[in-house]
Design brief:
The protein is α+β, with helices and mostly antiparallel strands. The chain has one domain (41-146): 2-Layer Sandwich (Tetrahydropterin Synthase, Chain A), CATH 3.30.479. It is 40% helix and 27% strand. It contains 4 helices and 4 strands; from the N terminus they run αβββαααβ. The protein has helices at residues 2-25, 73-79, 84-96, 111-126; strands spanning 41-45, 49-55, 58-72, 131-143. Strands 1, 2, 3 and 4 form a 4-stranded antiparallel beta sheet that branches. A hairpin with a 2-residue loop joins β2 (49-55) and β3. The N and C termini lie far apart (86 Å). This is Flagellar basal body-associated protein FliL.
Length: 149
């Protein structure tokens, strides 16, 4: 019985040593290339904006807008600052100060011009063409009387 146990231990020792010898004698195999992360555009969805609409000295209601923007992910990594606050700030400023938005006298609104202006101003503030596109996911107006308190 002891001979069988000793023979089994001997076989295990020979197997471990031969495996170690083969691994250490193999020339350095070329390491598999780390697949480069596809760096391109990254989509970032901002939290919803609540923008008051003021007319005749009173708050008429609020615009609820959800903005999405695409940005060059490689430039974002090297920037050190995320463009999210800049896009939110510029979106708020553009919509809040827009004199064409009059919900008492509805007419077609040129949202593309406004989005292009947001993109241009954010890139201007960041000093580089980081933001590639600005999109709207949601754009609603809620009158003051429809707001639940």
């Amino acid at each position: 019985m002891t001979r069988i146990v000793i023979t089994g231990l001997w076989i295990c020792a020979i197997t471990v040593l031969s495996s170690y010898a083969v691994i250490s004698w193999i020339p350095a195999l070329p390491k598999p290339k780390a697949e480069e992360y596809l760096e391109g555009l990254t989509y970032q969805k901002l939290r919803p904006l609540n923008i008051p609409i003021i007319a005749d000295g009173n708050v008429q209601g609020y615009i609820l807008a959800t903005i999405i923007f695409t940005a060059d992910s490689h430039l974002i990594k090297g920037l050190g600052v995320t463009p999210e606050p800049f896009v939110m700030d510029e979106s708020f400023r553009q919509i809040y100060s827009d004199g064409d938005l009059d919900f008492r006298n509805l007419k077609k609104y040129d949202i593309n011009r406004r989005l292009d202006e947001i993109k241009r101003r954010v890139n201007e503030r960041l000093g580089s063409e980081i933001v590639k596109d600005v999109m709207v996911e949601n754009f609603n107006f809620i009158t003051k009387k429809d707001i639940r308190s």
